[in-house]
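Q: Given only this backbone (318 positions), what sequence would you predict?
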């Protein structure tokens, strides 16, 4: 049976609201959550993008059972992998047995800000593999130096480590990234119910490892209202292809979103109050081979979503 979690959208909510939503997710029965790690929102309308590691500290104090992962952190651009290693270790120490690090190769939207350029996809995968090696090395708690093709670490040691190291999940969409996730990660993070992706992951060394899939929904009183809300707050759900990785500014996403139609949103997002539509989509992820599905509710109204899932959806997957 697939395990349901909640998606904390840092692009849409202020930090204290994210902390409150994490507490509500725990209260209504979600067992875990993933929180996005952005510098920019996708569009200016979303309007937020707090520093995720500060928010995690708040969630650590506001919850007692909820497991939490980053969904996802990019350790190859605005963050040096040594800093990610320290941040994740601190978070895991604050949430014993409840924190995991999710990493990916990032988006231009967030990573271009330091002015060091945006590498092509193949190079980003090589950088991510090197970053994983650095993170795991520093988590051993010994003084370490590293001189790689992309990163340097000199005489570094992480002193604050949890009793149990966090798992490291890797986000992937294409074949090469999925193979890297299978080889170097403790699990997979994906965004679509593609059976071929899961088969690639399992065949490349990921058999038996957890597989997290993100599902975007918009619960509202009617499908019409949900589509309207999604068009306002999350039109990027309808943008296809590699643009999400390549566009550098929220303005560019707003321009691309002008091409998105309501039918595009209906295909990409579960909209409305019909429990069967939500259940059916979750089941698609389960049938594709995901062990975990974490749900992103679009828009400001999170409380109605929590009540709806508590009453109609969560009991079906327990």
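A: Predicted residues:
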């Amino acid at each position: 049976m697939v395990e349901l979690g909640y998606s904390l959208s840092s692009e849409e909510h202020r930090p204290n609201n994210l902390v409150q939503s994490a507490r509500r997710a725990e209260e209504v029965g979600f067992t875990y959550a993933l929180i996005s790690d952005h510098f920019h929102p996708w569009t200016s309308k979303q309007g937020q993008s707090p520093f995720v590691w500060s928010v995690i500290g708040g969630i650590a104090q506001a919850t007692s059972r909820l497991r939490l992962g980053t969904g996802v952190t990019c350790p190859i651009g605005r963050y040096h992998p040594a800093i990610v290693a320290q941040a994740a270790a601190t978070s895991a120490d604050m949430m014993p047995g409840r924190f995991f690090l999710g990493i990916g190769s990032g988006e231009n939207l967030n990573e271009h800000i330091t002015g060091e350029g945006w590498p092509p996809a193949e190079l980003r995968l090589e950088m991510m593999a090197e970053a994983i090696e650095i993170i795991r090395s520093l988590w051993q708690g010994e003084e370490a130096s590293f001189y790689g093709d992309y990163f340097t670490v000199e005489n570094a040691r992480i002193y604050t480590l949890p009793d149990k190291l966090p798992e490291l999940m890797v986000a992937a969409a294409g074949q090469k990234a999925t193979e890297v996730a299978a080889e170097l990660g403790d699990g997979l993070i994906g965004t679509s119910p593609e059976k071929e992706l899961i088969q690639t992951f399992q065949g490349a060394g990921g058999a038996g490892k957890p597989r997290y899939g993100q599902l975007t929904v918009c619960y509202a009183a009617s499908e019409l209202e949900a589509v309207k809300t999604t068009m306002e707050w999350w039109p990027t759900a309808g943008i296809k292809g590699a643009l999400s990785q390549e566009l550098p500014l929220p303005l560019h996403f707003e321009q691309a979103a002008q091409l998105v139609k309501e039918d595009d949103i209906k295909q990409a997002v579960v909209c409305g109050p019909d429990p069967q539509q939500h259940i059916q989509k979750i089941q698609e992820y389960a049938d594709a081979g995901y062990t975990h599905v974490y749900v992103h509710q679009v828009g400001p109204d999170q409380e109605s979503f929590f009540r709806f899932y508590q009453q109609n959806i969560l009991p079906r997957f327990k």
